[in-house]
Design a protein that fits this description.
- The structure is a single chain.
- With 277 residues, the protein is of the alpha/beta class.
- It has helices spanning 20-30, 51-57, 79-89, 147-161, 171-174, 179-190, 194-202, 244-253, 262-275, and strands at residues 11-13, 67-73, 98-102, 109-112, 118-121, 136-138.
- The protein has one domain: Collagenase (Catalytic Domain), CATH 3.40.390.
- It has nine helices and six strands, in the order βααβαββββαααααα.
- The chain has a six-stranded mixed β-sheet with strand order 1-5-6-4-2-3, with helices on one face.
- Helix 1 crosses helix 2.
- The structure holds zinc ion.
- Zinc ion is lined by residues 10, 12, 156, 160, 166.
């Protein structure tokens, strides 16, 4: 399949700097496992790092207890289109304990279809977005948009809302990217300056902050990157749908049902991540 340049266009929307420490506190309040000191393989000594640094190392996963996030639309949006978007968001709920339901009020997740590309804030960060602003942007999505784009984009952005970062930021995949070529490529295709490329593409996720599964270039959270920017000349394939690894990981972070008391649930979620590391 030909490389489609617009596919690399998703950026994870970051909160403004003055909210980063508050966002980290929210993430840890919602789900203590988000704290870097508790992350699998972490062991960051407390008292050594500034709050701003700790904030950068904090994950943004929702807690392991099953939950429903409400969804609203910023602009008037037809019921068929709203239902179609919701159905793709809820593909994740087939395998995990987080589901999405429409609300007439300002939702936890607020979708806009206006210009600005495809993006979402990460996990619990959506709690700090002003209620009159979107947490997810799906530029131009309509009933005419191909089904494959709903699979590739809506499911991907929903993964960010679940707290999943970009799979292509994994250290093993970042190491395959030639920085000079990446700067030129993303400037030409996305208009990103070097700092944006560093943030969105070239800075590996902290090993302690994630996942516990091997890097998976077919993950829905991995965007296709062309061979023209890799060191070995081979493309990073990128995912086009939620795959079995994505579903299994989502199920491990967000069990569909739990019977243990809350304190044990949290420990179990951390344990799962360790077991699969
Ligand atoms: Zn993305």
């Amino acid at each position: 399949m030909e490389t489609r340049d617009n596919e690399a266009g998703c950026s994870i929307r970051a909160l403004p700097d003055h909210l980063l420490v508050a966002a980290a506190a929210t993430a840890i309040e919602v789900n203590p496992v988000n704290a870097p000191m508790r992350a699998p393989g972490g062991g960051v000594p407390s008292g050594v790092l500034e709050p701003e640094h700790i904030a950068l190392l904090t994950s943004k996963y929702w807690g392991p207890q099953p939950r429903q996030l409400s969804v609203s639309f910023l602009e008037p949006t037809g019921p068929d289109l709203r239902a179609r978007i919701l159905s793709h968001m809820n593909v994740w709920s087939n395998s995990c304990g987080v589901s999405f339901a429409e609300t007439d009020e300002a939702g936890d997740v607020r979708v806009s279809l206006q210009p600005g590309g495809y993006w979402s804030y990460l996990g619990t960060d959506i709690r700090l977005v002003p209620p009159d602003q979107q947490t997810m942007n799906l530029e131009g999505f309509s009933m005419q948009t191909p089904e494959s784009e709903y699979h590739r984009v809506v499911r991907h952005e929903t993964g960010h809302t679940l707290g999943f970062p970009h799979e292509h930021m994994r250290r093993e995949l970042v190491a395959r990217i030639d920085p000079a070529k990446a700067y030129a490529y993303f400037l030409a295709t996305q208009g990103w300056d070097r700092q944006e490329v560093d943030q969105q593409v070239l800075t590996p996720l902290d090993d302690a902050s994630i996942l516990g599964t091997p890097p998976d270039q077919d993950s829905i959270m991995c965007y296709q990157l062309p061979g023209s920017i890799t060191v070995d000349g081979l493309p990073i394939r990128g995912g086009t749908d939620v795959n079995a690894t994505d579903a299994a990981f989502a199920a491990s972070v967000y069990p569909k049902a739990v019977s243990a008391p809350p304190s044990q649930r949290t420990a179990a979620a951390a344990g799962d991540a360790k077991v699969t590391a």
